[in-house]
Amino acid sequence: MNTNDSRENISRKVVRGGLWMFALHIVDRLFNFVRTIVLARLLMPKDFGLFGIGLIAIMTLTTFSKTGFHGALIQKKDDIKDYLDTAWTVHMIRGVILTLILFLTAPYISSFFNEPSATPLLRVLALSELFVGITNPGVMYFERDLVFQKLFIYEISGTIFDIVVSIVLAFMLRNVWALVYGLLARRLIQLVLSFLIVPQKIRLRLDVVRFKELFDFGKYIFLSSILNFLLIHGSQAFVGKVLGAVTLGFYVLAFRISDLPTREVITIVDRVTFPAYSKVQEQILKLKEGYSRILQMVSFILIPVSVGLFVLAKDFTELFLGEKWMAIVPALKVLVIWGGMRAINVTSYPLFNGVGRPVLGTKIRFVQILFLGAIIYPFSRQWNLLGICLAVFLSELSVSPLYFYSIRKIINIQLIKMLKMFFFPAISALSMAFAIFLIKSSALAQIQRFLLSVIIGSIIYICILYILERLFHYGLYENILTLKRIMKHPVSKYSQKELACG
User: Fold this and answer.
1) Kindly report the CA angle at 334 between 331 and 339, in degrees rounded to 5?
2) Tally of helices (H runs) and strands (E runs) in the chain
3) Are 129 and 98 in contact (CB under 8 A)?
4) CB of 141 within 8 A of CB of 194?
5) Burial class (CB within 10 angstroms; exposed 0-12, middle 13-18, buried 19+) of 304
6) Among 74, 234, 204, which residue's Cα sits nearest to residue 136?
7) What CA–CA distances, in Å, run from 197 to 61, 92, 135, 158, 407?
8) Alpha-carbon separation of residue 13 from 62, 114, 156 (angstroms)
9) What DSSP string runs through 120-143?
């Protein structure tokens, strides 16, 4: 196969993989949205707070013991089947150790948060780490080779089991154990499926040479994951310790809602573009074209979502969550803007990792941690929960220039071109927000105002952006048409300029 054919095949895989991942996360988020709404109605804020303590404990252990092997295996150009035995052996040992640590330290973790009732919860949740450790690492093949059909089945099955178990038990138990058993059901079904759908056989074997090779790359992803944990879950631990479990419950739910759309876009971008960037890591023009298209599409989707959630935060909370959750509204408004900014910033991580420079993301996260650590306590003293959210937002804003500078050094993209990706969606989103404010001031019933705001706001956003596109040649329309043509016709009919990252 010649070079052009190889590039064309990569392009088709990127586009089809992106659509599969988009479908997966749309279905997954719809299911989880329903789950969140139902459970918020059935359970109390303290239940979410107790479960949040369990997740913080798990995330602390897993983050500080992460190997980074997953990213290292995806980034490798050569065949990786000889590395899977070592990866599985290391992950299994790690899973057993983490399970024992969490089981034995459960009373001390509960004491730290002044919640003795969290001890049995933590000990049962420890099983989830054992399930994850035994899971076949070969599922990574679907992501590495940009073939996401089986990955769709694998992940959506876990989601369905989680939803069914947690909702059924929430009706029966009306307490936090519904959330606990839902998570365990997810991990268990994914463990079973990993061996059913992956043809690659694995066995217990530790190759020291291959271990060192994987670790040399993975250590930077490991460090970056620690810093990312401190940014996100560290703030949750701070809330739980300083402000209590009830306030933590408010913060966890506000964070989950605000992060819902952005997390999915981040996940799709990372899992599709990281392997694609890895395959063309030495071709600067291809990387530049691919990154520009991704940044444009992310801005197109997330800027209006963030602005819309900001404007409709109070109505959304009152309609879907109920009066007992109204205290999260100010925090939710800050976090939805933070989520959109974070999603745009972290589009750089697949690029950093794909070209073999994960240390860049690690350095930026370290700067952000220092900034957040300096302001989180005084902000919490001044504004309580809202202060925590403001500190998280400002820490993300403070490092945005560093992301842009690092990207420019790698792919030599002009700053004005990057800013152009944000400007037109921002103008359109502000027009949408103005229309929503007018609709909210009408005499219609609340549910009618909300639905009309979503529909009319979406129409106005698309129309304004279309007008700006025609006047200033923003490039979005051409981007969408290119992706459509790639899906509809053989890629070989189009020039390399039309190929997204490969």
Assistant:
1) 115
2) 18, 0
3) yes
4) no
5) buried
6) 204
7) 29, 19, 12, 14, 37
8) 31, 50, 21
9) HHHHHHHHHHHHHHHS-GGGHHHH
Residue 204 falls in which region: left (phi positive, over 0), alpha (psi -120 to 50) or beta? beta
Whole-structure pTM value: 0.69
How far CA 402 is from CA of 293, 319, 352, 416, in Å, comes to 20, 39, 13, 15
Taken as a whole, the chain contains a residue count of 502
How many Cα atoms occupy the beta-carbon half-sphere of 190 within 13 Å? 28
Q: Which amino acid is at 77?
A: K
> What's 320's DSSP letter?
I
Q: How many domains does the chain have?
A: 1
Q: Render pLDDT for 391-438 as a digit per residue (tens, 0 to 9).
A: 999 999 999 999 999 998 899 888 888 888 888 899 999 999 999 999
Cβ contact 53:179 at 8 Å: no
SS3 labels along 293-310: HHHHHHHHHHHHHHHHHH
| DSSP states along 92-108 | HHHHHHHHHHHHHHHHH
Q: What is the pLDDT of residues 364-381, one digit of tens each?
A: 989 999 999 999 999 998
Residue 34 CA to residue 36 CA, distance in Å, equals 5
Could you tell me which of 297, 296, 289, 354 has the C-alpha nearest to residue 495?
289
Query: Could you tell me the residue range of the domain that residue 32 belongs to?
Result: 3-498
